[in-house]
Amino acid sequence: MNQSTLLLSLTVGAIVSFIITRLLIKQAVRYNIVDKPRADRFHTKTTALMGGIAIVVSFIIGSTFLGILPIPWSIISVLGITLSMYLLFNNKRIKAIVSCFITVSLCFGSIFFIYPDAPLTNKYIWLFTGGLIIFFTGAFDDKSKAMEPKVKLFFQIVAGSIAIFVMGSANFLPPVLSQLFTFFWIIGVINALNLIDNMNGLSPGVAAIIALSFGIFANIYFQNTEVALVSLMLSAVLIGFLPNNFPNARIFMGDSGSMFLGYMLSMIGVSLSWQTTDINIGILTPILLISYPIFDVTFVTINRIRSGRPIYVGGKDHSSHLLVKFGFSPRNAVLMIYGLCILTSIITYYITTLDLGYASTALSIILFTFSVLGLMLTKLHDKDYMKQKEKNTPVGQESEDVTRITSITPNVSKKYNKID
Q1: What angle do CA 355, 358, 361 make, to 5 degrees?
Q2: Residue 365 falls inside a structural domain
Q3: d(CA 251, CA 257)
Q4: Torsion angle, CA of 58/59/64/65, rounded to 10 degrees?
Q5: CB-based contacts of 278: which residues, under 8 Å, 6+ apart?
Q6: How many CB atoms within 10 Å of residue 367?
Q7: Mind giving me the DSSP string for 140-207?
Q8: How many CA atoms lie within 13 A of 243 on its CB side?
Q9: Residues 160, 290: Cα–Cα separation, whole Å
Q10: Does 144 map to a domain?
Q11: Which of 28, 10, 15 shows the shortest CA–CA distance to 250?
Q12: What pLDDT is attached to residue 174?
């Protein structure tokens, strides 16, 4: 594919994404598919959901222009998504579920019709079909806001199994370990992109930078044309979506978008540099490019365990929230994270092109940066959440010093209780 055709296809993907997003904003508000301000959320105004529809549909259309997806499959999937979401918007849940099931089934069936002699010829058509499962799961969660985590995990497992079966797993470990590692990688990245979707423009912006980096790496360093095309199109679609999501969001992409992005990026990473038996520095590339989502999930998980809070319950304790508490505006906090992702991508490029000694130094810079950021933000976290833990300490478990003081000096005890 020549550069002019590629540029035209990427431009079409971005424009289609922008237009569909604008149309969805009105429809989501009309059917009350919105995210309202809550104590555990950062946004302060009612905002439309279902932006994931624009991302997925635009990605399918753009990938069809690039020749990655065959036209019959794309027509079936886009029509199926449109019908399923129409039924879901109109609260026809059972019919919507049936429509989703039929859409996925027809997409699988069309693969055998399009490639009757070798259905595994086009691996990306299988990957996109698995992505539809993830997308529909997220869409139902966005609509109901009550889907149990175990239900979402089940469909993540189904889609991840399809991806590993067709696309393959990492090959730098023994067979069973490679498949397990890839499986947990897919589930982990899906939920990481979902969890960092906590501030206007953060998750889609970070995903756009990661996808663009994957595309550049695949083209320049790994010479993998298919991965490059898929990555660049995903980045273009997200760039088309961002004007409506950042800085003053008119729409959120919801779980339907964030989980789909995590699914696609995880398998792009596997296809980029993990399907080799050679253990080299290139193996670190996917991990380093997705290092910010990995960092944030690790940061939140550790601190919620420390403060005695459930890991799966939302809150304003992500790194982005704490940067605002540190003094950044929400816009600047997101821009700072963008800058961190870009810097990480640049350093990662040099890691893959330099000898082991220089690569180790560059890797140390990335690890040092995230370590310092984590320690700095943990101090801010502890001022709120560790004090809250102390306040919630059950009666009778106070320290021996407080017990001794209050028993000796009743007046001081009264004063102490009043201050507390």
Answers
A1: 145
A2: yes
A3: 12
A4: 70
A5: 172
A6: 11
A7: HHHHHS---HHHHHHHHHHHHHHHHHHH----SS-HHHHHHHHHHHHHHHHHHHHHT--STTHHHHHH
A8: 13
A9: 18
A10: yes
A11: 28
A12: 85
Q: Which helix (H) or strand (E) holds 409?
A: none
Confidence (pLDDT) at 374: 92
Residue 133 token pair: 């499962």
Alpha carbon distance 385, 198 (integer Å): 18
Which range of residues forms the domain containing residue 81? 8-384
Locate 33 and state its tokens: 């598919």
Residue 184 has a pLDDT of 94
The answer to whether residues 49 and 254 touch, using CB atoms and an 8 Å cutoff, is yes
Question: Which pLDDT score is estimated for 45?
Answer: 72
- DSSP 3-state of 258: helix
Residue 284 placed within a domain: yes
The answer to whether the beta carbons of residues 31 and 54 sit under 8 Å apart is no
Q: Please report, for residues 51, 74, 242, 358, the alpha-carbon distance to residue 135 in angstroms, rounded to integers and kept in the order given.
A: 11, 15, 19, 41
pTM, two decimal places: 0.88
State the Cα–Cα distance between residues 197 and 242, nearest whole angstrom: 13
Task: Identify the DSSP state of 280.
Answer: -
DSSP state string for 20-49: HHHHHHHHHHHTT-EE---TT----S-EE-
The answer to whether residue 3 sits within a structural domain is no
pLDDT of residue 147: 86
As averages over each run of 10 residues, the pLDDT of the chain (420 residues) reads 82 94 88 73 73 95 94 97 94 95 97 93 94 96 85 94 91 87 94 92 96 93 90 96 88 93 96 80 88 94 87 82 91 95 90 73 86 90 72 49 40 37
Phi and psi torsions of 15, nearest 5° = -65, -45
Query: Structure tokens of 382?
Result: 């502890």
CA distance 260 to 190: 7
Tell me what pLDDT residue 32 has: 83
d(CA 16, CA 253): 15
Asked if the bond preceding 37 is cis, omega within 30° of 0, the reply is: no
Number of domains in the chain: 1
**Per-residue pLDDT at 100:** 97
